[in-house]
Design goal:
The complex is a heterodimer. Chain A is built from 27 helices and 5 strands. Chain A is mainly alpha-helical. In chain A, helix 26 links the parallel strand 1 and strand 2. Chain A is rod-shaped. The two termini of chain A are 123 Å apart. The N terminus of chain A is likely disordered. By secondary structure, chain B is of the alpha/beta class. In chain B, 44% of the residues lie in helices and 13% in strands. Classes of the chains: A mainly alpha, B alpha/beta. The interface between A and B is large, with 47 and 42 residues.
Chain lengths: 749, 213
């Protein structure tokens, strides 16, 4: 047991190197530059890069550990502390722990690794895992199995659902199994390793799978489970010869022995030969394998290389401390002579082999071959009794010991052959035949069962794989579900967000609307106020107009009529009522003139108050009157076009008066200021507006002219009041034109 | 013979003034005085009147409407419109409605008797407002050839440019006018020619009148 545990501890060290190399390999992939040597690193100025290089160097499996690395690490640690980089600090502490571990300072290593572990929760995944593996490694080296186990568990828990750490998980499983085996617990080997193998298969990393298989085979070898080891090794066969380790010889031996057990002497021979030819095979292994080679060659009747085998056999001799070794040696010796037909020597050696006995070991297997060998030689020499004697002895040993069926078959075949030469009853022959058939059958069954076992194993493995795949699928499905759920959640969140945004938007819009509504309300209120004011103004205006009209009418009609009668009376006074030239006569004359003047003035006032003709006889007539009056009373000549304007009754009063006054004003302006001889006026009645165009050949209006400035201003105001447009342009000594467009209001202004 | 007069005026001052004026004149006999048109039309003595002195401005049925009705009655009476309004349009109107004279109260009342006699003689009496003869003036704003369409020279110019497929803007630029002015001219042209608002119609017109070839 001690040898096993020492073997295991060496083995675990090997695995650690492997982990390190796998990790280092992984790092090499991600970080292109190769690891610098220590001298190069030392020359670099302190920086993240330097520290990175240092860590890689310190963790490389090829590193030779010196205190110098420690010094550099301390420098890096103080840098990490000062720059408050926790990740880096944890990494450095762990790295230093490994350095201390390799320098043999187990306590310091543990302290440092534990310090690194305090950052565990904040570390990124890879680094956190490193912290755990560092600790498990340190505990392992300290022989603290309990704590090692704790960390194996932690790593398993940590890596279980993280596919990116599958390698770490497998190695951890292996380490854990090693520890369990070291503590004598071999119950979980098979389950642990089948899990590890499956994970390795999943990882799609053939190197890892192979390595795990080797580890498993090794483990099986160590716990003396040759049968299981055999099936694992079978998987490794093409690779075994390429990957030679100190275990390869053992593996070949296992293969050879197992094939032998199954009666497959060909393969048994091949692996024995391979074992023998291994350069690193031990003397013991050489002894065993060469003897077996002769043994199988004899059984297979292949004698061509027997002489060279015999030379080797002689060269390596035997292990004097091992009865098996000695018996095997004797058997090989005998078989060689047997094959060479040196029957005397063969007999002597068979006998010698058979007679080798010790108290502890029996070596029944060899004894049977020795006895049968002897019997066969006697049979050949026709010494039937002796032959019978030895056959019987062999039969007795076979009876006493449970030996492999293959040897029984060997015996049966030999005895059958013996019986056939011996003239004995057919009963015995039949009996022997039956036995042979039975044995063959047994052997066949055995092989079959082996095969079926293999099949079963393979089946169970594939089942497990399937289960694993299923589990994986389920996991994926779960992840998908989680993803879907996340998506759903995201969707919900999104929808919620959208709703919130919509609501916010709605609220905003509502608020805005409200604001707007308030604004509109205020505006409409203001508008209403304005409208009201306007209405008031218009009403006032209307009232004013009405009043003006009333006054104008009364002035014109009543006062005018009265004045007319007064004038009539005065004018029809008797002529020469007063003496010509006397005071009364001149007073009368003055009165006549005065009445005429009053009459004229009243008419003018009345007209300016309200163009009564407009009201009474229509817009067009009023304009025509205006034009005719000017044409008859002034030197100025007006040409005119009045287009339409026949149905102006529906025009609002204000509009009619406004338009009339505008025309009146334009013409008055020309008469007063333009110095023109010809005027053209055109009023066109369009569908919903009238255009007024007045042109003269006067001196040309000038906007800056003060004299007509007020007149123009009044004109503009009047046009504005009717929402019209005005264009007026004058050219010196050529004339002026004014163009006005007035929209006809559909309702009273 | 004594000329029988009926006075129609809503102002008593006028009625009484004229009555007083003719009181001493035995050539005239004022047989009735009414204060509105309706009263006049319904007056029993209306068929006897030789002359009706009719004020235009009366409440109810005014002078102009009364003229229409009087015309329909086919009276013998001559009608002289007595009014305060010196309007050529009104004069024309009254003439058309069958009045025989038009006297502006404030100007010509003292000659009323003579006017009545003139009318009785069968002459018409209207203020002779004459417009100055256009033919004396060589200058005119109208286009010589298109006067019957009442088109001005400026408007004809614009028609030509429109028919050259120029846009209002281009025409305005070419004539140093504003777009508003050109646009308004165009509207006025279409209205005067009573064309639908399409350049094609204008183009046809221009072709027809040889404005363009």
């Amino acid at each position: 047991m001690r040898s096993i545990s020492s073997l295991l501890s060496v083995f675990s060290l090997f695995i650690w190197c492997l982990i390190a190399s796998i990790f280092a390999h992984g790092q090499n992939i991600s970080q292109a530059p190769p690891i610098k040597n220590l001298a190069e690193i030392k020359q670099m100025p302190i920086s993240q890069e330097k520290i990175g290089q240092l860590i890689r160097y310190a963790r490389s499996p090829r590193t030779i550990y010196t205190t110098e690395i420690k010094t550099l690490l301390d420098e890096a640690i103080s840098y990490a502390k000062s720059s408050k980089k926790d990740d880096l600090l944890a990494n450095l502490l762990g790295t230093k722990a490994i350095v201390e571990l390799n320098l043999g300072n187990l306590d310091a290593a543990l302290t440092l690794a534990k310090q690194a572990e305090t950052f565990f929760d904040t570390l990124p995944d890879g680094l956190a895992l490193t912290t755990l593996s560092d600790l498990s490694r340190i505990y392992g080296r300290r022989g603290d199995d309990a704590n090692s186990m704790v960390y194996f568990d932690k790593i398993e828990a940590y890596t279980k659902d993280k596919p990116q750490f599958i390698i770490a998980r497998i190695l951890n499983l292996r380490n854990r199994t090693n520890l369990e085996v070291r503590n004598g617990n071999i119950a979980k080997v098979a389950t642990n390793y089948s899990l590890a193998l499956n994970l390795a298969k999943q990882s799609n990393n053939p190197a890892l799978l192979k390595d795990t298989r080797y580890a498993y085979a090794n483990m099986l070898l160590n716990i003396r489970k040759e049968d299981e080891a055999f099936s694992v090794l079978q998987e490794l066969i093409p690779d075994l010869e390429n990957t030679i380790t100190d275990k390869t010889a053992d593996f070949f031996a296992i293969l050879s022995r197992n094939y032998e057990k199954n009666g497959d002497y060909n393969n048994a021979f091949i692996y024995a030969e391979k074992e023998f030819k291994l350069p690193n095979a031990t003397v013991q292994q050489k002894v065993s394998s060469i003897n077996r080679m002769i043994f199988f060659a004899y059984l297979l009747n292949q004698y061509q290389n027997l002489d060279s085998y015999y030379l080797e056999h002689k060269k390596y001799g035997f292990d004097p401390n091992s009865l098996f070794s000695r018996k095997a040696y004797q058997l090989a010796e005998s078989m060689y002579f047997d094959a060479k037909k040196k029957y005397a020597l063969a007999k002597a050696n068979y006998l010698k082999g058979y007679q080798l006995k010790s108290k502890k070991e029996i070596g029944a297997y060899f004894d049977v071959f020795c006895l049968i060998g002897l019997a066969k030689i006697y049979q050949k020499q026709s010494n039937i009794d002796s032959a019978q004697f030895y056959f019987d002895k062999a039969a007795a040993i076979l009876k006493e010991n449970t030996l492999a069926p293959v040897i029984k078959l060997f015996y049966t075949q030999a005895i059958k052959n013996f019986n056939s030469t011996k003239a004995i009853s057919t009963d015995t022959i039949i009996q022997n035949l039956e036995q042979e058939i039975k044995l063959k059958d047994t052997l066949f069954q055995l092989r079959l069962s082996k095969l079926s076992n293999e099949l079963a194993t393979k089946y169970s493995v594939s089942e497990k794989e399937k289960a694993l795949a299923l589990a994986k699928k389920q996991q994926q499905l779960q992840q998908l579900e989680i993803k879907a759920q996340k998506n759903k959640q995201l969707l919900f969140t999104l929808i919620f967000a959208i709703i919130v945004i919509c609501l916010a938007g709605l609220a905003y819009i509502l608020m805005q609307r409200r604001k707007q509504a308030t604004l509109i309300h205020n505006a409409s209120l203001a508008n209403l106020k304005k409208q009201h004011q306007l209405d008031l103004m218009q009403q006032l205006e209307k009232a004013q107009e009405n009043e003006k009209k009333r006054v104008a009418e009364r002035l014109h009609d009543e006062v005018g009529a009265m004045l007319s009668i007064a004038k009539l009376n005065i004018n029809t006074l008797k002529p020469n009522l007063f003496a010509a030239g006397n005071e009364e006569d001149s007073k009368l004359k003055v009165t006549k003139t005065l009445i005429n003047d009053i009459s004229e003035t009243v008419r003018n006032i009345s007209h300016s108050l309200m163009p009564i003709a407009l009201e009474k006889y229509g817009f067009k007539s009023a304009i025509l009157d205006l034009v005719t009056t000017i044409n008859t009373t002034n030197t100025i000549h007006i040409e005119y076009v009045l287009e339409g304007l026949d149905n102006t009754e529906h025009w609002p009063q204000n509009f009619k008066i406004g338009a009339y006054r505008i025309i009146q004003e334009l013409l008055n302006n020309i008469i007063k200021h333009a110095d023109a001889s010809h005027v053209f006026i055109q009023v066109v009645n369009l569908t919903d507006s009238i255009t007024i165009y007045v042109e003269d050949n006067g001196k040309g209006i000038q906007a800056a002219n003060q004299a007509n400035g007020t007149g123009l201003k009044l004109l503009a105001t009047n046009i504005d009041f009717l929402a019209g447009k005005l264009e007026i342009r004058g050219e010196p000594n050529i004339g002026t034109f004014a163009l006005i467009e007035l929209p006809i209001p559909t309702h009273n202004l | 013979m004594i000329i029988k007069l009926i006075l129609a005026d809503d102002h008593p001052v006028v009625l009484n003034g004229i009555k007083a004026h003719f009181a001493a004149d035995n050539r005239f006999d004022i047989i009735a005085m009414v204060s509105n048109g309706l009263e006049l039309l319904q007056h029993p003595l209306l068929p006897l009147a030789d002359v009706v002195l009719l004020d235009l401005n009366m409440p109810g049925l005014d002078g102009l409407k009364a003229l229409d009705s009087l015309k329909n009655k086919k009276l013998n009476a001559k009608i002289i419109v007595l009014t305060n309004y010196h309007s050529f349009e009104l004069v024309k109107d009254c003439k058309a409605k069958g009045a025989h004279g038009y006297v502006v109260k404030s100007e010509d009342l003292q000659n009323l008797a003579n006017h009545i006699l003139t009318v009785i003689e069968g002459k018409e009496l209207f203020p002779n407002h004459y417009e100055k003869d256009d033919t004396d003036n060589k200058f005119s704003y109208f286009d010589d050839f298109l006067k019957k369409y009442k088109l001005t020279k400026r408007e004809v110019e614009i028609i030509r440019l429109v028919c050259q497929n120029l846009r209002t803007k281009d025409i305005a630029e070419r004539l140093y006018l504003s777009e508003f002015t050109v646009h308004t001219h165009r509207k006025n042209i279409m209205r005067k020619l009573e064309l639908s608002d399409s350049t094609v119609a204008l183009y046809e017109f221009a072709l027809k009148t040889n404005l363009i070839s």
